[in-house]
Structures are given as structure tokens and as C-alpha cells.
Amino acid sequence: MLDETTRERAIALAESIKNLNEYREFLKMEKLLREDGIAQKMIFELQKKQEDFVSMQLSGEFDQNLLNELKNLQSELNKRESVVNFIESYNKLSSILEEIIDVISKEIEFDIGEIYRR
Question: 23: closest CA among 97, 100, 103?
Fold first, then answer.
């Protein structure tokens, strides 16, 4: 069970993270991506085609046309400004969070990040 002092410090760390420019930028870019109707439609279509492709593979089938459609759709999606900005902000925030985990791991001499690298 987590003692109250440790819980308070963890909450303080979370609040500190929420105050980072990178966190606020990530939330902003996530909102813009959700509001981009074209990107959302493309994401839905991509997910559906990925499911179809995996189902076919599991059945021992391979559809080159479907694979090409997936590649083209992914390429078009990656050109959308909302997607590019979201991915960039996600990567920046992830990098900071990884750094925080590394600092904690070093201080307690236990590699917390190992779980996520498996």
C-alpha cells in the first residue's frame, strides 16, 4: 500500500507534468486531430482495412491490392497536418516521460522502463 507522503509526491509529479508546455501542446494537438473529420474518417477506414488484412492473413490469404490500399491510405494520412502535429507532440511528450522514468529508475536502482521495452 502506498503511504500518504509518497502518494502526495506522485500527485505533485503528475501536476508538474500537466504543467509542461509539451503536455499542453499534446492535449491541443490531440483535440485538433479529433476535430479533423477527414483524418478521423481516414483513421477509421485504415483500421477497418487493417482488420480485413489481418483476417485474410489468418485465413492464409494475401491480397496485394488491399496491402497497396493500406500503404496509400497510411501515406495520405501521414500528410495531414493534424496527424503530423499530433505525432510530433506525442513523441516530444513521450520523450519527456521516458526521461522522468529513467531518472526514477536510476534513483531507486530499478529499471521501471524495462517493462515497456519488452
Answer: 97
Query: Using a CB cutoff of 8 Å and minimum separation of 24, what contacts does 45-50 make?
Result: 45/73, 46/70, 46/73, 46/74, 46/77, 49/73
Q: What contacts 24+ positions apart, CB below 8 Å, involve 74-77?
A: 74/46, 76/42, 77/39, 77/42, 77/43, 77/46
CA–CA distance, 110 with 118 (Å, rounded to integer): 15
Per residue in 60-78, pLDDT tens? 999 999 999 999 999 999 9
Q: E strand or H helix at 38, and its extent? A: helix 37-58
**Residue 85 · residue 77 · CB < 8 Å:** no
